[in-house]
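Researcher: Batch entry, complex prediction.
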Amino acid sequence: MKIQHPQTWPETAEEAIPIQEQLKSLVVTTDQLESIQYVAGVDVGFLDNYTISQAAVAVLSFPDLQLQEQAISQRQTTFPYIPGFLSFREVPVILEALEKLTIIPDIIICDGQGIAHPQRFGLACHLGVLIDLPTIGAAKSRFIGTHQELAAEKGSWKPLIDGGEVIGAVVRSRTHVKPLYVSPGHRISLETAINLVLQCTSKYRLPETTRWADYLASKSD
DNA sequence: GCGACAG
DNA sequence: ATCTTGTCGC
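Model: Structure tokens for the complex:
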């Protein structure tokens, strides 16, 4: 797929702040999506002592979840890990991997937060706004927000709250297993995001899309 | 000032 | 994120 890359990428939090502030106004958290035929998962791994970032994208058919296409890309790591600025470290290389796809996914599930972020602009929002496609943030751990205890059964969920507003949901993707932190990235509502993530999760805690991307991004050859 | 802190 | 084997529990 054709991608419009930003001219330059910031290398410090100070440079990233104004970009974050400008782009967050473009985030849409209402459903603005087509019928879903293809769901993609993206993830980033590191090589050579973190100096090289490697992104992987896995496109699965929906709702049968069969791998249809995959793409890998590597790039020099140009931004440090700073909580609140993860997207500036991972989105650049993700864009390069997406560019190699022949199938344009209808929605992308990201390994990280969507609006469940201090500035309401997590990785999934940043990626979604840049490529103007629906995205969901499905993180393995909490970043910000509080929530009530949730039932142990698969499918149960509780809203994630921060500053008095609902920023996402804590979702039990498998019975008796650590929950997932789901939040809208772009062009999708929280309710639709929760249902989509659950529909993409079968036998394991993580969505099949994320499992494929994780696996591909962590390979050394 | 003291913790917390996506990947 | 990543280094790493077997092992305990639902």
